[in-house]
Write a structure and sequence with these properties.
Pfam families: PfkB. The chain is α/β, with parallel strands linked by helices. The chain has a single domain, classed as UDP-N-acetylmuramoyl-L-alanine:D-glutamate ligase (3-Layer(aba) Sandwich), CATH 3.40.1190. The chain is 35% helix and 25% strand. It has ten helices and 14 strands. Strand 9, helix 5 and strand 10 form a beta-alpha-beta unit. The mean pLDDT is 95. 1-O-phosphono-beta-D-fructofuranose binds next to strand 2, helix 1 and helix 8.
Length: 302
């Protein structure tokens, strides 16, 4: 089983407008959706669609917290969130003719005690892997992630911002930065695949056994103790990029859970993520074709 921990989940409100926003004008639309979101939750959603046993945990509160639980349970995804006093946040993506605009609320303030409760809940599921992903709510420091990684015998995977990556002190099985996070965590300028792999190696030396980095248009790289791999992005029509990194990670972890090679895992991640960017919000597209499509993705070794 792969458990996800989302410390600062969100309801994702995605709204599509036919024209650019104009100051002082009311934009009207029938195209909008609400998804259960937050990076760990998304990983669980995509893992479930790929047939991997998963439970979504973390912190949730208020009406939007209830919405999250209800949505996930309707989709057949097991949840075990610790209830907090504050209200789970609403994150907004506005898709217009001229771009993709994302507004993320900072979320509620949380007490450190809730973190120990998540550790207790995780132990009940005895997961092989725990994925801790997304931002931290106010009141929760990076040490909370180290404590969760240490709270049981699982391998821990993190998808957190660059500053948090640098602050972590534990040993991690994998981290998944995007280009900006990789540059921030290693304090380097990254220009191309070789730079990204060099930065990934720097993170490996810092306690992350494997690094998968999403590079946007340039696809993704993976650095492991044995290999340096690059897979190009697939040529698809992008509706929005929300959830792209989460689905890359889910594809990699699903293949890894099936005992597949690093190259197959990277292909699987790129294939899943190319489906997710083709739909709006963090909805889960049909992923049944992924195992056929990934064979067409050429992975280069560096
Ligand atoms: O504010 P964070 O925690 O960094 O990111 C949260 C978020 O933008 O990430 C997901 C997409 O990756 C969305 O579901 C969610 O709204």
């Amino acid at each position: 089983m792969i458990a996800s921990v989302t410390l600062n989940p969100a309801v994702d409100y995605t709204v599509e407008l036919p024209d650019p926003l104009a100051d002082g004008a009311i934009a009207r639309t029938d195209e909008y959706r609400y998804d259960a979101g937050g990076k760990g939750i998304n990983v669980s959603k995509y893992l479930a669609a790929l047939g991997v046993d998963t439970v979504a945990t973390g912190l949730a509160g208020g009406r939007l917290g209830r919405f999250l639980r209800d949505e996930l349970s309707t989709d057949g995804i097991a949840t075990d969130f610790v209830e907090i006093e504050g209200e789970t946040r609403l994150n907004t993506t506005v898709l217009t003719a001229d771009g993709e605009y994302k507004i993320n609320q900072n979320g509620p303030r949380v007490s450190g005690v809730a973190i120990e409760t998540i550790g207790e809940r995780l132990r009940e599921y005895d997961p092989e892997t725990v994925v801790i992903a997304g931002s931290r709510p106010k009141g929760v420091g990076p040490d909370a992630i180290d404590r969760l990684a240490d709270a049981g015998p699982w391998e821990t995977v993190v998808d957190v911002d660059g500053a948090t990556l640098s602050a972590l002190e534990g040993e991690y099985a994998l981290c998944k930065p995007n280009l900006e996070e990789l540059a921030a965590a290693t304090d380097t300028r990254i220009d191309g695949v070789r730079d990204a792999l060099a930065a990934a190696d720097a993170l490996r030396a810092d306690g992350f056994e494997r690094v998968v980095a999403s590079l946007g248009d340039e696809g993704a790289v993976m650095a492991t103790p044995e290999r340096h791999l690059h897979a190009p992005a697939r040529d698809v029509t992008v509706v929005d990029t929300v959830g792209a990194g989460d689905s890359l990670l889910a594809g990699v972890l699903a293949a890894h859970a099936r005992g597949e090679s690093a190259a197959q895992a990277l292909r699987s991640g790129v294939a899943v993520s190319s489906h997710v960017v083709s739909v709006s919000g963090t909805q889960v597209p049909p992923l049944t074709d992924v195992s056929n499509e990934r064979d067409a993705i050429a992975v280069s070794t560096y």
